[in-house]
DNA polymerase III subunit delta
Amino acid sequence: MEPVYFVGGDELLLIEDVCVAIVKAAGEQGFSERERFDIGSGTDWADVFSGASSMSLFSEKRMLDIRLSAKGVDRAGSDALRAYVENPIEGTLVLVRAGPIEWRQRTSAWFKALEKQAVLVLVPTISAQELPHWLDARAQSAGLKLSRDSIEAIVDRAEGNLLAVQQELEKLCLLDRSSDKEITVDDLSLGNTSHFETFELIDTGFLGDAPRARKMLRTLRQEGVPIYMVIGALAAQLRRAYHISIGRRERLAHNRKRAVDAVIARLGSRGIEMSLVECGRLDQQAKGMLRGEAWDSLERLILTVSGRSRSNLEREARYLLP
């Protein structure tokens, strides 16, 4: 094993897959003790790496699992990471997990140091064209045989959210699979109801009916609909509305066009863009990268889109502290 691994990217599920593989391989090589650090604005980086130099009571080898916040690395963190990768401590494996790596971060001193002296894994984003093949391969690895129509239905429902795809596969694993029968779209019928209710909720919000939209959202929550499904669908429809607002052409069903026209008239391209930014922060909150209850934040965002409230998750949420 190498002394330092850095894993980052846009897809939390793929990041987790890579990190699970690293942790498993490290465990097989004797790194049985793992200490986790969730990095926040008040983190003392000296405390993070001080444990690496002290002897463990339980194992000669240890792993430091460092999880960066959405804000990335501050000056103290940059200096600490650079210093460590240039002089790693024997018997210690450092795993650094991060979210999306922006261009500014890629040009920073700490990132360049990692590029030179650490194992750098930047997980790719799965494109819309690649998603059906990726889903089929992941289903097969889980022992599931999906029909072509069921693959298309899951892809359409997930709106590009890999976590939502994974949740669908996990639900399918609970089905009776005593035979090798192929899973068809009929096996997904229960989830389809939630799918259509989600889009009805979004249309209701776009049309400005805030009380009904809030009631519908709370019903979906009580029914146990995955929040990733709602966030993904909302972001997808906001993105289409934004494209139309700046003059791009989008194919819309007639019944959805009225809702999209209404939200464009209410929020304008700038307001829709800000709502999309909020969706990104809400996605981070749902993944545990921001504090707070994601469903409550989603309700505020739905009300904002409906024109009845103002949402600013960046201001209201606090980054996770260690």
Residues 316-322 have pLDDT under 50 and may be disordered. Residues 135-180 form one domain. The first strand starts at residue 4 and ends at 9.
